[in-house]
Amino acid sequence: MTLMLKIFKAGMLPALAMALMLSLACGRSEAAGKALVVYFSWSGNTEALAQEIQAQTGADIFRIETATPYPENYNATVDQGRAELRENARPALKQAKVENLAEYDTVFIGAPNWWSSIPMPVATFLEANDLSGKTVAQFVTHGGGGVANCDRDLQRLCPGAKYTEVLSVGGSSARGAKEEVTEWLAAIGFAK
Ligand SMILES: Cc1cc2nc3c(=O)[nH]c(=O)nc-3n(C[C@H](O)[C@H](O)[C@H](O)COP(=O)(O)O)c2cc1C
Fold this sequence. Notes:
Blueprint (H helix, E strand, L loop, with lengths): L2 H7 L3 H20 L2 E5 L5 H13 L2 E4 L10 H13 L19 E7 L7 H9 L6 E8 L7 H8 L4 E2 L3 E4 L7 H10 L5
Parallel strand pairs: 1-2, 1-3, 3-4, 4-5, 4-6
Helix pairs in contact: 3-7
């Protein structure tokens, strides 16, 4: 008797088929992998978007915070952000490294457009955390300038990563961007 026939006779075929289906199903969910949402936000817009992404994906979340907070005054922060960009500064962070980074296959990373680029604390973060080999899904909030150089400048600081389409949301719409987030997640392959 062939091995297949013996298995069939033993009534194991349905069990094997089920095991195969389960392993295929698990394989699919693993394609998205474990995800982390990393964000920097000064006035809360990008934070709202980060929280929506977390809610829709079940990802972990990590906030980039500078050791010395930015001024509460808008103009003072605008000036400081411009000076830091010009100097290519690397402001110190409260916590620069994600200790369990190796666990994540996908890193969502969000920040406001500051002077058409990423805020320099995001550069500090990217230099402290090696994202090569991971999928990097960037999201940006802005005051009308869109993504500008934010994608280019982020990609320069995480070589070797795989990049998805960028989600760009106007700052004043960030708190109600549930549908944009759902559509973006579907477009980049993270639909639930
Ligand atoms: C320092 C600074 C620079 C900014 N530069 C730009 C800019 O160049 N283009 C733009 O569209 N918006 C700019 N904005 C507006 C922010 O991108 C926008 O308000 C964003 O949603 C703020 O996100 P947050 O609330 O997460 O900090 C700037 C804001 C700040 C504080």
